[in-house]
């Protein structure tokens, strides 16, 4: 009888823990090489209620979403096994909505700023509309404006409820908010987040 391998890739283990699922947030961002990998923590999106669990020194975090938000992933192969992974655009839209699972709002904006040329901007817009969150629409619109990329502003704005909302509800940067009339946002993040580092 063969001994089981002592090391099984955490993403293979995770794929057996809940159904349906896909990997997103920090896990998918590091898979797509948008952010350095973070060991010991794996993020799975699922429509099922499941408690977080630790297996072999890895913490599996299950992020529950409504069925409407469960989309935007493909199968990828990890060490000969297929697993469900959010595509780059869905990884970033998930993260823009629930940014604590990728490190913080600054991390999402930094990734978008540095990788916008490799992303499908129309897909970012479409995914945001499908998510059905007005706050998410307002955030993405403001970011895309700042990154000076062309996108269908009228289409995106037509799905916004236009309710005045804070860009960063946690006021991480401790800034006095300034109102952005176009996206009806109280902007309390520094402009420096949009600067490309050399």
Structure explained in plain terms:
The longest helix has 13 residues, at 134-146. The strands form 3 sheets. Strands 1-2-4-3 form a 4-stranded mixed β-sheet. Helix 2 packs antiparallel against helix 3, helix 3 (88-97) packs across helix 5 (121-131) and helix 5 packs antiparallel against helix 6. The chain is globular, with a radius of gyration of 18 Å. The chain contains 7 helices and 9 strands, in the order H-E-H-E-E-E-E-E-H-H-H-H-H-E-E-E. With 198 residues, the chain is α/β, with parallel strands linked by helices.
Summarize the structure.
By secondary structure, the chain is α/β, with parallel strands linked by helices.
List the helices and strands and how they pair.
Blueprint: H1 10-14, E1 22-23, H2 25-31, E2 41-46, E3 53-55, E4 58-64, E5 73-78, E6 81-86, H3 88-97, H4 105-115, H5 121-131, H6 134-146, H7 153-158, E7 165-166, E8 178-180, E9 185-187
Parallel strand pairs: 2-4, 7-9
Antiparallel strand pairs: 1-2, 3-4, 5-6, 8-9
Helix pairs in contact: 2-3, 3-5, 5-6
As a whole number of angstroms, the C-alpha radius of gyration is 18 Å
Taking pLDDT < 50 over at least 5 consecutive residues as the criterion, the unreliable ranges are none
Helix content: 25-40%
Taken in chain order, the helices and strands follow as HEHEEEEEHHHHHEEE
Summed over residues and divided by their number, the pLDDT gives a mean of 95
Distance between the termini: 55 Å
Largest sheet: 4 strands, mixed
Shape: globular
Strand order of the largest sheet: 1-2-4-3
Decide which structural class fits the backbone: alpha/beta
The helix count comes to: 7
The percent range for strand residues is 15-25%
What's the count of strands? 9
